[in-house]
Amino acid sequence: MLSAAIEEAKIGLGEGGIPIGSVLVHRNRILGRGHNRRVQSESAVLHAEMDALENAGRQSAAVYREATLYTTLSPCVMCSGAILLYGIPHVIIGENITFLGEEQLLRDRGVEVEVVGSEECRALMTAFIREHPALWHEDIGQP
Length: 143
Known about the structure:
It is a single chain. The protein has helices at residues 2-14, 38-41, 48-56, 61-64, 77-86, 103-108, 119-131, 133-139; strands spanning 21-26, 29-35, 67-73, 90-95, 112-115. By secondary structure, it is of the alpha/beta class. Strands 2-1-3-4-5 form a five-stranded mixed beta sheet.
């Protein structure tokens, strides 16, 4: 399923956006796919995880509580808040070297967090940050 999130990241990059992708999975079925679309949609909130949740549509609390969120990059505080809000119990992260998000917050609140250490995810972000530092800093709320 991480490969589907990586595919989303590449779609986002191809659209001129930030290469971060995510998928929401329930019982081995992808409910929603998404990628960071802040640039493409002129959005303040469409990080990959938020886009995947939005594209999954309205789900019952029971579905969220059995779901796994796959994401190519460690989730920021906004996306971690959404994970906690909907009670998603398991998050699989492609990499957390280029950005370490709120993994500890998630763990402290009982979420199982698994970091895969994907070289492909890291390479996508490393190249993007090198080529577009101002856009990257805008995306994560840094001056």
